[in-house]
Amino acid sequence: MNGQIASCTIATVALESMQAHARSAAPLEACGLLLGHAGSIRAAISTKNVAPHPERSFEIDPAALLREHREARGHGEAVIGHYHSHPNGSLEPSKTDAARAVEDGQLWIIVSAAGVCAWQAVAGGALHGRFAPVELVVV
Fold first, then answer.
1. N or C: which end of the chain has fewer CB within 10 A?
2. What structural domains and CATH numbers belong to the chain?
3. What is the pTM of this model?
């Protein structure tokens, strides 16, 4: 994704999928990939969290990441970001998230019992100098 966006549409099925995955993974962090086009999320694909300490961090399975990039290209889509859950309830990316984020415009969606919030990894973002808020519009 290129350029900062203020809002993004998300398919209801993608939103519900992320929320169900986060609930089923608790108290561990759930994670997955977002498929679609710039400004539009069509699907959320759950992946295995391979982090050494999944109760407090996440790492998307590298094999799943490569596979989903290939499959998305084959369908004329792209991996436009990822999601992960915060079992502690926070809807903001943590300082650890910020340290790991690449300022490439990818979407970061945080899922918790408090709701769902979207962010974009950008240089000079309002949060931790790395993330800009993105409004999610459910379609």
1. C
2. 7-138 (3.40.140.10)
3. 0.93
